[in-house]
Design a protein that fits this description.
Helix content is 36%, strand content 14%. It is α/β, with parallel strands linked by helices. A six-stranded parallel β-sheet has the order 2-1-3-4-5-6, sandwiched between helices. Strand 4 (101-106), helix 5 and strand 5 (128-131) form a beta-alpha-beta unit.
Length: 346
Amino acid sequence: MRVLNIAYQQLRRYGNTRVSWAQKLTLGLIKNDHNTQVFSDRDVAAFEAPLSIRDLGVRRARRRLLETVEAFEPDLVIAGHCDMIDNDTLVAIRKQQPRCLIAHCNNDPLFVPSNVERIKYRAEVVDAVFVSTGRRELKHFEGFGARLYHMPNPVETSIENLNNAERTDLPIDLLFCSNSNQFTQRLQLVKNLRDALGDSLNFKTYGSFGEPPVWGRKYDRALSQTKMGLNLNRQDTHYWYSSARMAQLAGNGILPFTSDQLHFDELLPSESVVYFSDEQDLLEKIRRFHNDDARRQAWAARARAFFHSEMNSKLYAQYIVEATSLQPFSHDYVWARDITLDGTLK
């Protein structure tokens, strides 16, 4: 299949990049032998704009996308986070390539109101919408036109290539990285933990309390030194929703701690991810695993093995292709056992 993946490719960050689910999708598509082309709307807009003022290049980016579609003739277009590409452009793609399927992948949380509107907007013109929140939360998007599916945050073997579960010489005991304070009160929890833990362990909180965030190789180095990590979303309120942080931690053999309100115990194997109910419960479990390194290693190893075998980029990409094109699933996707092929709950 010929697949065009429209998403921000971070070209102008020149290596100082964030870990990108869109990049993982591209790699997964290639591993499944799909002829894959990428189109980075934000970068093209900046490159095409007068004085590189990105907002002045939006119309040109849309035209360049249509040129790309005409030249590449995709069978499937996946529109990720590409707000510069409006629905009229997607409709023009369908007119230009009538047999082409179009999907929208959305990796942002539903507690951000603008993202809810974005999903509704895309659902009007695409065949399928994939959201990183569990299927049970997606009912209010029904009736807008598209079929709705849950998608996980995958690991990619070339990116999550560490295995800290095998190591005992790691200097960072606990890690929390963040870069956003909107729609959240999680920093109060992190501060309370820091105060309670004191000097009993090495707790790094990049991106918080005046510390700059870490990207690119700096982020890789932080992960490479870490035993345990906090998977704290800006809000822990939505079924099966997590930022990409959990896959980054678990995929590298770093033991993740996450809220039990997200119900990941229904999806992930037991004794892999540590679930907590409240601040005191989290504090006690951090201390317990810090003082029992063998247990930390065993749980982290189990989480890592599961993510790499059942939630990897190759399975993730093929699932999106199969669901969009209504092909029978070629794998027993653990995150899709509660839905039928057409996206409805069993």
